[in-house]
Amino acid sequence: KSHHPRAIEAATKYFLTQSAASALVLFSSMTNAWHTGQWDITQLTHPTSSLILTSAIAMKLGLVPFHFWFPEVLQGSPLTTGLLLSTIMKLPPIALLYMTSHSLNPTLLTTLAILSTALGGWMGLNQTQIRKVLAFSSISHLGWMAIIIVYNPKLTLLNFYLYAMMTATIFLTLNTIKVLKLSTLMTAWTKIPSLNAMLLLTLLSLAGLPPLTGFLPKWLIIQELTKQDMAPAATLISLLSLLSLFF
């Protein structure tokens, strides 16, 4: 939107990442068609092509280790664009993951998920820019979505919908009170106290504090992981999400 060097840089980064990831998606479907003889999304049976597809979608979504572009792009774009990037632009890759979830590699996805939650928590700790904080929060939420997609894809969708709703609330609130840095957020409560109270609750909900909505998908995911005999992974990912709750 704004013809600003920083915004142009962000747009270029976004374009290059997404086009590389799209090329990888096409490449994975080609290798799959080469080995199995069909182009159907649900017939992604070849291990190499499912591996390439997983990494391509991880790149599109911004899962660790392909996450470097996301905070940068979000920081360089205005709040409304940031909202679109964090919610609507994540829907197509998640839809692809949902449709191919039965043939993906559980170990790889669990590893990516735990790394994402860890990095989303740690890197968010030392940020002063609100958009970067929200970018790292998004990365750790994606970790929760990736860990459960193989076992119960519907929970991933529930998590995504609730995440999109809470993120939309936060971005629109910040847009209303014109806040970009933590230092301006500190003094913003005098402008619209009621809106700020809501922002506080939404931030706690996004972090996943138990009585609030944001805890619901985490609770269900922990329950499902325990049913799948993955209690250690559930414990680890819960402890790592405490990092993002802290900031």
From TrEMBL:
The chain crosses the membrane at residues 12-30, 50-70, 107-126, 133-152, 158-180, 192-210, 230-246. Belongs to the complex I subunit 2 family. InterPro entries: Complex_I_Subunit_2, NADH_UbQ_OxRdtase_chain2, ND/Mrp_TM. Signal peptide: none annotated. This is NADH-ubiquinone oxidoreductase chain 2. One of its GO terms (cellular component) is mitochondrial inner membrane. It is a multi-pass membrane protein. Its main location: mitochondrion. One of its GO terms (molecular function) is NADH dehydrogenase (ubiquinone) activity. Keywords: Electron transport, Membrane, Mitochondrion, Mitochondrion inner membrane, NAD, Respiratory chain, Translocase, Transmembrane, Transmembrane helix, Transport, Ubiquinone. Core subunit of the mitochondrial membrane respiratory chain NADH dehydrogenase (Complex I) which catalyzes electron transfer from NADH through the respiratory chain, using ubiquinone as an electron acceptor. Essential for the catalytic activity and assembly of complex I. Residues 3-243 form the NADH:quinone oxidoreductase/Mrp antiporter transmembrane domain. It comes from the Eukaryota. GO terms for biological process: mitochondrial electron transport, NADH to ubiquinone. It is an enzyme of class 7 (translocase). PANTHER family: NADH-UBIQUINONE OXIDOREDUCTASE CHAIN 2. The gene is ND2. The keyword Ribonucleoprotein does not apply. It catalyses: a ubiquinone + NADH + 5 H(+)(in) = a ubiquinol + NAD(+) + 4 H(+)(out). It comes from Basileuterus tristriatus.
